[in-house]
Design goal:
With 126 residues, this protein is of the alpha/beta class. The chain has a single domain, classed as Rossmann fold (3-Layer(aba) Sandwich). The chain is built from five helices and five strands, in the order βαβαβαβαβα. α2 packs parallel to α3.
């Protein structure tokens, strides 16, 4: 349902603005983190319905941040989608194997992004 919190973990300001503006315009409540450590703190304090996780972050990378989210009982159940600008053959499978619930490549297709957010927030994970 709209109004759900979506944590966006993104260190690129332009990408963050796009995610924030699109989520907010469609009725979601975006939470913003620009690093893995910040994401862990925010998710623990205000568990979101969904996390959109950039893979390349300035401190700990998205895969390590995901591992730590899964270790914490407060955040273990939250679906986490990988975001990456360097889409390569096999990335989807690699990210699923690492424990991500899904994968989106950047630059994001806004209709695909919103359909994915709705699928996870409105109906739960697949």
């Amino acid at each position: 349902m709209a109004g759900e919190r979506v944590l966006v973990v993104e260190d690129n300001e332009k990408n963050m603005k796009l995610f924030h503006d699109v989520l907010e315009a469609t009725g979601y409540t975006p939470l913003k983190a620009s690093s893995g450590e910040e994401a862990l703190a925010l998710a623990g304090e205000n568990p979101p319905a969904l996390v959109l996780m950039d893979i390349q972050l300035p401190d700990i990378d998205g895969t390590e941040t995901l591992r730590r989210l899964r270790e914490d009982e407060r955040t273990a159940h939250i679906p986490v989608l990988a975001l990456t600008a360097q889409a390569m053959e096999g990335d989807h499978e690699r990210f699923l194997a690492a424990g991500f619930d899904g994968y989106l490549s950047k630059p994001v297709d806004v209709p695909e992004l919103m359909a994915t957010v709705r699928r996870y927030c409105d109906k739960g994970t697949e």
